[in-house]
What we know:
By secondary structure, the protein is an alpha/beta fold. It folds into 3 domains: 1-30; 34-237, 2-enoyl-CoA Hydratase, Chain A, domain 1, CATH 3.90.226.10; 254-291, no CATH class. 42% of the residues lie in helices and 21% in strands. It has helices at 2-18, 23-30, 66-78, 96-107, 125-130, 158-177, 183-190, 206-211, 221-253; strands at residues 42-52, 63-65, 84-94, 113-121, 134-137, 142-145, 202-205, 217-218, 256-260, 267-271, 289-291. The strands form 3 sheets. The chain has a 6-stranded parallel beta sheet with strand order 2-1-3-4-5-8, with helices on both faces. Strands 10-9-11 form a 3-stranded antiparallel beta sheet, with no helix packed on it. The protein has a two-stranded antiparallel sheet with strand order 6-7. The model is unreliable at 1-6, 10-19, 243-248 and 250-292 (pLDDT under 50).
Amino acid sequence: MQDRFENDNEETEEENCSQDVPADAxxxxxxxxxxxxxxxxxxxxxxxxxxxxxYILPAQNKTTKYEHIMPALVAIEQDKTIEGLxxxxxxxxxxxxxxxxxxxxxxxxxxxxxxxxxxxxxxxxVPLAVSAKRSFIVPSATMxxxxxxxxxxxxxxxxxxxxxxxxxxxxxxxxxxxxRIDAARFRELMMKKDELVMDVGSVLDGKAAVNEGLxxxxxxxxxxxxxxxSLIESSAPDTVKxxxxxxxxxxxxxxxxxxxxxxxGRVSAKVHTFREYRPHTLRATGMKGxxx
Length: 292
């Protein structure tokens, strides 16, 4: 009886999820809200807590699961109704490979992307913050830069240290490629000894992160949204131009020329294909013609 009652509750919850719910319920359940009166249709993606990778973290930890974020990014890239992506970061870091994988997907998106760091963007949160086309940070936020660390049982052999070093180089290369900071300066901040009590590294506040070239600008939510709108509007003319060119080509391919041969009154239809639609190419040569 109890199992049957639980199954009935699960079916009821699924039915409620399938129905239309108000905006406040969407925010509390899914963390997103689709607005009908917005200037542009953007998607808000939050990366909060600890980034969970190949191992499940304890239940009391607030986590962002990379197996949920990756399919969401693919869906956002394909969805024609979504014009841009806003990424809000407040993370302590987490799994290195999972965080770097998410960063690579964001950096490879064709749609306009803007990130904003609120609270903190520590450890592997640094590549996530710089992966967007434009990045912002609020003045009170901080970013921790430190070398790659790993817990658990490790083999004390040269190959382990070599693996750590190569992983660190991958992160440095990605961060420097997607920001204005120099690789030598990033390594210097990473190996600083007089700032962290239990580790080497640096803690940068919002203003320092911008001055170091790690983040593009200092600003809040309105600045990030306005920047995303600008990126959307600046990329719109290219999209319209490509669409217009495609339509012109389709019209040219389907253009039919009806000509009178002048002999027995018969009319012949000929299909002409052109790389681009140009009216002067359909000029009649000694025969009356028109384009349908």
